[in-house]
Amino acid sequence: MAPGIRVSDQGPVRILTIDNPAKRGAFGHGMAPALLAELDRADADPAVRVIVVTGTDGCFSSGHDLQEVLDAPETAGDPVANAAFTRPAELTTPVIAAIDGPAYAAGFILALNCDLRVAGAGARFCAVGAAIGLVPVGGQLSRLLDVVSYPVAFAWLATAAPFDAEEALRHGFVERIGDGDRALDDALALARDIAEVSPAVLAAVKSGLRHTLAHGLDAGRAAEPLLAALVQRLPDGAEGVRAFLERRPADYPDAPGDLRERIAKVLA
Asked: What contacts 5, CB < 8 A, 6 or more positions away?
């Protein structure tokens, strides 16, 4: 089977699998655009409540296919060519990275830009830019500081040294280290928990947090009542209260197809 991005569903959870085991999950020709298209397709589908990105055969991704980088070095720092790796942070749908083995270079960027990261015991991470003469891009000089402290970010970027799952957990880069054989199992359990809450509220939460990080606390405080009013007009609140009073799990509807546009409008 040719390398590519495999798509499968477990209920409301969309699983995107980076499938290139011969090159440890490296992104070869066409794979990054395919991932970008699948991320956008999942985000546009109201029935998809959580996206999980994972790899195959004990690998997440070793980054770009280096032979292709040598042939076209300008793509290594091209934001258009690397749009897939930063897209998870821009989506309304929550994205979880399930990481086994290496998450290096572009694989590290992709993991960084997911909302949550679940690691297997053998996961390893590396921001390789300084070691191969490339400025770390794709959020490594910006978003990384929203996840870990400046000294930690500087050490990881300046040394380009690999670090393991325990170090990632210690500094809050990963949410948890899975107990089973595969990070995917624990990531899916987390995804199912997230999929049970209101998808409209989740969209507001992710958008509100992103807005605060981009524009500061005052902007975030101003956005809170706007987002609350937007969601209040949807049936989620009434369903949540009824479910609580009736002592049953809530049955939330899928988010409206235009919710992302509505949120963008109130935050503009």
From this structure: 16, 17, 18, 19, 31, 34, 35, 38
Q: CA–CA separation, 189 vs 175, rounded Å?
A: 13
Do 145 and 239 have their domain in common?
A: no
Q: Does the structure show a pLDDT above 80 at 62?
A: yes
- The verdict on 203 and 84 lying in the same domain is no
CA–CA distance, 19 with 24 (Å, rounded to integer): 9
By residue range, what is the domain housing residue 188?
A: 4-195
Confidence of residue 147 (pLDDT cuts 50, 70, 90): very high
Residue 202 pLDDT greater than 90, yes or no: yes
Residues 32 and 156 in one domain: yes
pLDDT number for residue 134:
87
- Global pTM? 0.94
**Average pLDDT of the chain?**
93
